[in-house]
Amino acid sequence: FKRTCGGVDTFEINAIGSKELHTMEPEIVKTVLSLKSKDYHHSTSRKGAFAFLGPGILVSDGEEWEISRAMIRPSFHRTQIRDLSALEEHVGNLIACLPKDGQVVDLQPLFFRLTNDTIFESLLGQSTYSLLGDATDPRNTQMFNAVDYTTHRISIRLRMGRLATILPDPKFTKALA
Length: 177
What we know:
The chain is mainly α. The chain has eight helices and two strands, in the order E-E-H-H-H-H-H-H-H-H. The chain is 53% helix and 7% strand.
C-alpha cells in the first residue's frame, strides 16, 4: 500500500469493469466486519482466486458470510490467541531439526514446514507434522510443491480478476487435489 499507492491506507481501483475498495486501515476493516458487512461484498477477483475453497468466509457475502464468520469467531477469541500451547509443540519440533554442532542451516524450509504444521492444525484440526518427517519424503515434497504452486497461482488470479476463470490451469487443479 505505502510503496505502490503513494502512502495511502485506502484506495479504489477499477478491476476490469468492477470497482474494488482496498484498505489496510484497521478501523475501516473493523467497522466493515462488525457493523457494515451488509454494505460491502467480496470482489470478483477475490471470488475468482478463492473459488476452489467453496463457500466460506473468504468468498461468501451476506448471510452465508455471517454464518461462516460465526463458525470461526471462537478461534479468534483473545484467550484462544493468547494460548500458545498449540504452537509450543511445533516450535519444539523445529528446534529438534536444528543441528546441534553449530553447523549453518537454512531456516527458510524449516519455517515453511513450521507454518504448514501450525496452519493445518489450526484450520483442519490435524497437523501435517512435516517437521517430524523427512523433508525429502516424496509425500512431503509433493505437498510443499502443491502449496507453493497454488499460493503463487492465487496471487496471479487475484490480479487477473474475472479473466482468471477463463484460463484453464490443470496444474493448479491437480495441486489443489
